[in-house]
């Protein structure tokens, strides 16, 4: 068994792992590199393997840093099947089509050929097979099984068995308990494990704290007659914030102000959520059965068109705007940030991970001036963050997930985190669980005996 780290090594994004098992070459995830200009340029580089030689591709979940180069893989010669859970496939179609035009703009800026076309997306979806949790896929030389990772709807960690060994790819693990999703599952044994480490050195606020902070931020912004901007990832984070606002509004715990979901993609993805109610946790299913529309409430406005988005500017403060992208790297949030970052009365609230080099990270780090659409924009508004709304597990949850496998694990690889986070988690795994742990280098290779 051989394992290659062609993405997600000492970086949060760009997940891409090559596993040679049972005489087959399989990929786990094929995501975009995101954040800095250097990361974005990496997306246009050739794959470090021949796509035509890959026997199968397995996708842990539908975030673009895990699926964003799948059509490029198809374009460059991959001809075999793609496997994921049903929601992941449905989300992937929307996510890839949405990102295609953005990537074409990047290609023009970098004077490169397009990363892929809509035709490549359609070809990829044509060979994409939806597999339910716990259904064991048997191949010549190995098997694969998806388990619920609790990260976003349909997210999975994958267990591969072959050559008398078992290896687990965590994908991204959820921040359990999640307001909407079922808890992250665990397994009791494995020989090797790749574990995400986006928050490998940190501890989130608990659920009551994060909801209280959200309530306080809203009340403070309303009192100062400002605009609350929430850069939110269209997949999962937008739905989670809508769910929380629905509860706060219907229980009259916050003042009544207009709320705008200014993201066509988030609106479309929310429709997919309604299709998969059986994936929700017990409490959320009870709320739905009681007749509550969990993603809809009085005062919510869905702005699909550009014209509707522009009309938000005419609505007097106070107001709340939820828009993509989650790291302020593009999308409609940039227009609102250009308008309101300089307003002392307004607030920008980050509810997801801000990768190094992103505009969101710069604002969060306290930069006084940021550049948006070629303009220098002073940051005078309040800047807040709620780590507890991250869909990533923090250090205690990551250790808790690993612990049932403690007796059997030969080695753990900390991936999908910045070096300090991955290193902190690897050290904790060695100290507390007594398991050999390592932070692999990009394009490094391991023979797993």
Whole-number total of structural domains: 2
Tell me, what's the shape?
globular
* Computed CA radius of gyration, to the nearest angstrom: 21 Å
Considering DSSP H and I runs of 4 or more, what fraction of the residues is helical? 25-40%
Amount of beta strand: 15-25%
Straight-line N-to-C gap: 7 Å
Number of helices: 14
Largest sheet: 7 strands, mixed
Output mean pLDDT: 95
CATH architectural designation of the largest domain = 4-Layer Sandwich
Describe the structure.
This protein has 449 residues and is of the alpha/beta class. It has 14 helices and 22 strands. The protein has two domains: 258 residues, Metallo-beta-lactamase, Chain A; 183 residues, Rossmann fold, CATH 3.40.50. The strands form four sheets. A seven-stranded mixed beta sheet has the order 6-5-4-3-2-1-22. A seven-stranded mixed beta sheet has the order 7-8-9-10-11-20-21, covered by helices on one side. Strand 7 and strand 8 form a beta hairpin. The model has no long low-confidence stretch (mean pLDDT 95).
């Amino acid at each position: 068994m051989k394992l290659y780290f062609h993405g997600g090594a000492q970086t949060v994004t760009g997940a891409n792992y090559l596993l040679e098992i049972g005489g087959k070459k399989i990929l786990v995830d094929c995501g975009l590199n995101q954040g800095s200009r250097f990361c974005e340029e990496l997306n246009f580089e050739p794959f470090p393997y021949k796509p035509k030689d890959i026997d199968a591709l397995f996708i842990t979940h539908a975030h673009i840093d895990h699926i964003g180069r799948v059509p490029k893989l198809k374009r460059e010669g991959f001809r075999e099947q793609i496997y994921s859970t049903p929601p992941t496939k449905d989300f992937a179609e929307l996510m890839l089509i949405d990102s295609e035009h953005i990537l074409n703009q990047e290609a023009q800026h970098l004077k490169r050929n397009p990363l892929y076309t809509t035709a490549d997306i359609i070809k990829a979806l044509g060979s994409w097979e939806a597999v339910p949790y716990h259904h064991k896929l048997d191949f010549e030389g190995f098997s694969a099984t998806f388990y619920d990772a609790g990260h976003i709807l349909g997210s999975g960690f994958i267990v591969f068995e072959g050559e008398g060994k078992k290896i687990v790819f965590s994908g991204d693990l959820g921040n359990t308990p999640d307001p909407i999703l079922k808890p992250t599952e665990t397994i009791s044994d494995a020989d090797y494990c790749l574990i995400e480490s986006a928050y490998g050195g940190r501890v989130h606020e608990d659920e009551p704290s994060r909801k209280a902070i959200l309530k306080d931020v809203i009340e403070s912004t309303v009192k100062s007659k400002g605009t609350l901007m929430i850069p939110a990832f269209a997949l999962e984070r937008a739905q989670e914030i809508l769910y929380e606002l629905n509860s706060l509004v219907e229980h009259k715990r916050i003042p009544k102000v207009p709320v705008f979901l200014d993201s066509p993609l988030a609106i479309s993805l929310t429709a997919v959520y309604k299709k998969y109610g059986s994936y929700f946790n017990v409490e959320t299913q009870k709320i739905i059965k009681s007749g509550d529309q969990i993603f809809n409430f009085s005062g919510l406005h869905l702005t699909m068109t550009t014209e509707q988005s522009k009309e938000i500017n005419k609505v007097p403060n106070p107001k709340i705007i939820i828009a993509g992208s989650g790291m302020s790297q593009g999308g409609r949030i940039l227009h609102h940030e250009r308008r309101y970052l300089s307003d002392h009365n307004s607030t920008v609230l980050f509810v997801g991970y801000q990768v190094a080099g992103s505009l969101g990270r710069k604002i969060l780090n306290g930069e006084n001036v940021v550049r948006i659409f070629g303009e220098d924009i002073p940051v005078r508004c309040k800047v807040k963050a709620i780590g507890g709304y991250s869909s990533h597990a923090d250090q205690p949850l990551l250790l808790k997930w690993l612990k049932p496998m403690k007796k059997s694990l030969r080695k753990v690889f900390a991936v999908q985190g910045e070096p300090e986070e991955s290193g902190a988690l690897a050290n904790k795994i060695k100290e507390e669980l007594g398991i050999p742990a390592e932070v692999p280098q990009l394009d490094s290779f391991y023979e797993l005996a």
